[in-house]
Amino acid sequence: MEHVGQSIIPGLPDDLALRCLAKMSHGYHGMLETVSRSWRDLIRSPEYANFKARQGRCGDWLFVLTEGSSNEWVAYDPEADRWHPIPKIPIGHVDCQHVGFSCVSVYNMFFVIGGSYLPHNPAFPHQRPFITNDVVHFDPYKKQWTRMASMRTPRSNFACSVVSGKVYVAGGHNLSCTRGLALAEVYDPMTDKWEELPPLSNPQMDCLGLSYKGKFYILSDQVGLTDQRTFEVFSPSNRTWCIVDDIWPFSRAMQFAVQVIGDDRVYTVVDWGDSFIRTRDTEQGEWYDVGSVPPVVLSDHSRPMEAFGYGFAALRDELYILGGKVLKWEESGGGRFDIVKLGLVRVCNPSVTPLGWRETRPMCGSARGSIVGCASLEENSSFPSKGMYC
């Protein structure tokens, strides 16, 4: 029986025991809570969260939201090789699917921004989506969501990225501007304030944001097509937009995403039948293949299959291919197939060729299938804590 005043770790002062347990990353917390009631209470306590925050020990996180997960995110801890659910976002429309949002990490904080809520009520099949300007922040120390200052403009399917510690958004659409927005704004997480930016030269919708060499790039759904040979770039230093030539070897109509490792190592997935990892030679300005994404092999199916609808993320120096679906054809050749949702997670280091792929622990619970959103958070103890912890 546990008793009041029992040491956290017998034989150690409690302050030293706290330091020891604080070294354990978030993927181990569920296991630690099963050791004893005192450990459970400590792991869930403000003192534990505050101590880790002061030390900047939030750990590395990979956040993923999949279809059919009732808007519940899951998180991966690469140190522990474990997935675990995080609390549901406490605001929004609980009976609606959240899509078209952006998610980014900055200063050891994870943000989910804007997007659309799609009603699921079959009695009202033609309900219009609700487009929001909400911003919520997940605290990796307290494992809690907090509502932050809202964007000035509600928007969905917009460009968003972090440049020099600030979150830039531009374009997208809402119910007032269904053909695209030219409005742009920037968020400072240290002051929790949004500031209006000069507008884009042309409205953009269904666009993607990219931080590259200290600038904010807007990649539209037409990039890579023959009738669209330019895109817009914002320079925070002089607060101006400029139009530059198209350098991207893909279009939004295909399965793709872009990840930047460091400040200038750009990687993308190009899905033209087979899936390839491509990178850009920053000196020559040319794109080339690094290697292919291996096909999916199921234990009950003889043929390898190409996945679709998967997520693409970077964490530290590695690239992740997450979830997705495959079409599992009948072996008899009858022309019928099943759609199989995947919880599969594959990882490679793109700087090492040929690419050596490995599988990590699959996503947990109902987290499988098409990826709605994913983003990584890399621990950095030098980030300011905003004075939130004392």
From TrEMBL:
The protein's UniProt keywords, in alphabetical order, are:
Kelch repeat, Repeat
Q: Is Iron among the key words of this record?
A: no
Pfam families named in the record: F-box, Kelch_1
Claim: Repressor is one of the keywords in the record: no
State the InterPro entries in the record.
F-box_dom, Kelch_1
Q: Which residues form the F-box domain?
A: 10-47
Q: What is this protein called?
A: F-box domain-containing protein
Can you name the source organism?
Carya illinoinensis
Q: What is the lineage of its organism?
A: Eukaryota, Viridiplantae, Streptophyta, Embryophyta, Tracheophyta
